[in-house]
Amino acid sequence: MSGPLINWLRDVKHRYVHPSRLASKGVLGMNRRNISYISRYNPRHLYPLVDDKLQTKQIALDHGVTAPDLIGVIREQHEVGDLSELIATYPGFCIKPAHGSGGKGILVITRNDENGYHKANGQTVSLSDLERHVSNILAGLFSLGGRADVAIIEALIEFDDCFTGFTYEGVPDTRVIVFKGFPVMAMMRLSTSDSNGKANLHQGAVGVGLNIGDGSALRAVQFDRRILLHPDTGTNLHSLKVPHWEQLLALAVSCYEMSGLGYLGTDIVLDRHKGPMLLELNARPGLSIQVANGEGLLPRLRQVEALGHKHKMTAQQRVDFAREHFSRKL
Amino acid sequence: MASRKPFYLLVGLLIIAGVSLTLHRHYTYDIPWLPGETRQTWSIEAKVEFDATGEEILASLAIPNTQPGFTQLNQQTASPGYGLAFSERETGGDRAEWSVRNASGEQALYYKVDMLLDPYAAPPQTSKPPKLKVHIEKEPYATAANQLLDRAQERSSNPYTLARELIQEFNIQSQNAQLLAQLKPQLNWIVQLLHQAGVPAREVHALYLEDGRRRQELVNYIQVFDGEDYELFNPETGERGRPENLLLWEYHSGPVLEVVGGINSHVTFSMIEQEQPFSVALNQKFADNELLNFSLYTLPLEEQALFKGILLIPVGVLMVVLMRILVGLKTSGTFMPVLIALAFIQTSLITGLVGFLLIVGAGLVIRSYLSYLNLLLVARISAVIIMVIGIIAIFSIIAYKLGLTEGMKVTFFPMIILAWTIERMSILWEEEGPHQVVIQGGGSLLVAVLAYLAMNNELIRHLTFNFLGIQLILMALVLMAGNYTGYRLLELKRFKPMVEDK
């Protein structure tokens, strides 16, 4: 009679892993991330810099960090009428809420003609549709907790063709965890039909762990499970290699000086003409990057912590340090 | 990184303070660890009977107060037509005094007192030794008495042994004892001789408590003082100490009963033993005893009931903390599960779960229409609140019409919390899809049910209400959980793929 119970217990045991095995892999857990890294290295007063995309853009501009051009900002409902003026000279642009999260409320217009404005997925919308979208942003429809928000209109990123076939709709971006100015781990986030064109791993996007040394793929996961081919396009994900890798790391590292946050997630996209561009920063980067890389963050974080405060390395030296010590082979 | 020493010090202090407060309450106030324990109480009824002579009547009966071994809980009298006053004599000792302008014939007055068997009883005033009084006796009694006293003094070293030996001497020297008994009772002689030897002593009137006895008489004991302390002695056997079932009725050198305007007066006692839940007993014990006693039992009953609920909240909160930090469950709204659990306590679990799911389900359907209307946040939440009230009203009416009185209990749900829950779930649905709604909603409900089971546990209710020190321990646990850097249970599952393939 205890048979089913024992089977069930065995089944449960099979689904969980002993904490010591995770610890030996150096996997960073949520509690330790919050206590030992986020609250220790990220001063609370700096959060608005990254939670508000407008402020992020401002400091990026001040520090010469490459980011998509700002076309304009709409702060109040009565300014919505100015939208057509703002976008008149731009064939393609992107409207996003300053406090949006998880890619919500981002509207990408690739070009416009007499039929109206063309969205990335081929649909066309009219100017009044755009104005209503901006109104929704202002009303807080997309912001956390529904607070009133402002709409940012920025220039369109022309994605590098090198990722064609790796992504289904959506924006392929590179997430680099920068710890005390060292790029410790990186992954590429590719949207899928499961994730509805969004690049969030928990929504079904594919995460590809990247070799810090040269930006080549290490392994790919979807829903925390290892995969080899992109579920929609069928491309071999292991053949992925991010170009302009050194430039991208330099950009990620410069975000440390720019924001002052010690434990930082940087989201970077590759523009066809301008190279790597900062899309947004995250003061509470998720832990899935470890699954995508098949490796825990802790050993790398500790290696950086062991350097102490007095190393006086330049940004370039920190990148070199990371590429030397955190390189992995497929 | 600041040193963690102050933190561990604080946690340590909280735990030590909590544990010692708890132990203190257990050992000083005799509050049991387990609920449902009972305390023995005795209901004793004194019946005063006399024949009235048709004049003014004043009847005065000595009554017992809290004393070592017993705590007086409450007292009442029945005496139709009589005026009643409780008074205190100068020598100490309470009395019940009945008076009436005129009465004739047989009279019966009743006095009833409940005494709690209480090893920790704290008498309101200590028993004062009587003043020494020395009688000069005439011969031959003086010689006989002195013989007894001398023999006893030879074999004794302190007041207590003297009392014991003196009582035994009366049994041994039976000739002398018989001679003395001609003048006055043996008991009076013993007290008198003790006084003569410089030992304060008095005769006290006590009652043997035996369940269901009626028409019992008081028995005499001798109270012998040694400074502030005293001991009781059985005047027949010389046995020292108070038998466990002996209640002192009159112990202040006063008469047991005085009746003016009546003859043939006597008092008899009947008693029953009762088992009372300790909370009832404590309630009565602390009812008019506010000093030094930081206990919720001193509050009025209504506030006590309120505090019973309030003191449970930290338990629910701890449950949420453990579920989120140790297990990693997601809940919608951090402490929403605690409030839902509080509602479950009112409604009972099954009714509560069904009601909650019905209200939130119906709310989500209507809320999806509101989201189509594209309203501002505050207006939208307000609309959801009104909608929740409407749903609750409709469900109550339907339940009532169908004869399901259980269904009426949905009104116990906190409506603002429900509105926010619906709002959050609805946003979650739009942003992350129904899958996340099920995960977070299920997580919230699971935590709420666990919090309910913890908060509704009889033992936990008992402990949190009676031992305020538990709150400090809960605080320490929450602080410790806030410092936990290990893996969450669900992370062990989430990161499993990382370790299994090479």
UniProtKB/TrEMBL annotation, chain A:
Matching PROSITE patterns: ATP_GRASP
Domain annotation ATP-grasp: ranges: 57-308
Classification via InterPro entries: ATP-grasp, RimK-rel_E_lig, RimK-rel_E_lig_ATP-grasp
Keywords of the record: ATP-binding, Ligase, Manganese, Nucleotide-binding
GO cellular component terms listed in the entry, alphabetical order: cytoplasm
Listed GO biological process terms: SOS response
Molecular function in Gene Ontology: ATP binding; metal ion binding; ribosomal S6-glutamic acid ligase activity
Keyword Translocase: no
Protein name as it appears in the record: Alpha-L-glutamate ligase family protein
The keyword ATP-binding appears for this protein: yes
Organism: Methylophaga thiooxydans DMS010
UniProtKB/TrEMBL annotation, chain B:
Keywords of this entry: Membrane, Transmembrane, Transmembrane helix
Protein's name according to its UniProt entry: Gonadoliberin III
Signal peptide positions on this chain: none
Domain of life: Bacteria
Cited Pfam families: 7TM_transglut (PF14402), Transglut_i_TM (PF14400)
Keyword Membrane included in the entry's annotation: yes
InterPro entries noted in UniProt: 7TM_transglut, Transglut_i_TM
Species this protein is from: Methylophaga thiooxydans DMS010
Segments forming domain 7 transmembrane helices usually fused to an inactive transglutaminase: 255-498
Domain Inactive transglutaminase fused to 7 transmembrane helices: 24-182
Residue stretches spanning the membrane: 7-27, 305-327, 339-366, 372-398, 410-429, 435-455, 467-487
